[in-house]
Amino acid sequence: MINAAIFASGEGTNAENLFQYFLNDARIKFKVVVTNKPDAGIVARAERFKKNVHFVSKSAMENYTDQLIEFLKVENIDLIILAGFLLKIPEKFVQAFPNKIINIHPSLLPKYGGKGMHGMHVHEAVIANKESESGITVHFVNEEYDKGEIILQAKCVVEPNDTAEILSKKIRQLEFDHFPKAVERFL
Which of 98, 116, 139 is a domain's end point? Predict the structure, then answer.
């Protein structure tokens, strides 16, 4: 069995989708949810699924990386899933969990990746550049933002009259449909 931790900063809809998808799957157990925002929606969603929630500040992520790594190792975490976690993962952390940290990104990387490119910022850029398609990328995390090896990509058409909000809904559906499949590939 794979013991997984989910790191999230927002509403936690992707995390909830994973909890639901793997609810009766003996291959994976979501042991820990880590968030940097104690008032984020992920907290209530994790509690509904009876998951342990831990808060880690930006400062703690940067200055107490060894303690966080030790905590996850004590919990026997085999896989870390970033589901909308907005803090940069320190290099030391990546080295402690090589090819065991996966992230979902709301674009077809390498386009629209990097620092500051998350959520609506990505969708607005895609619309502003009149792209004909967009999508999601699930990838391994390495020392650079959004540059790790790609596990899975899924695409959608961007219609000429789409707004960032419309595109956001299309991307959300791709996330719900494909993120669990990417996790299954890891399993």
Answer: 98
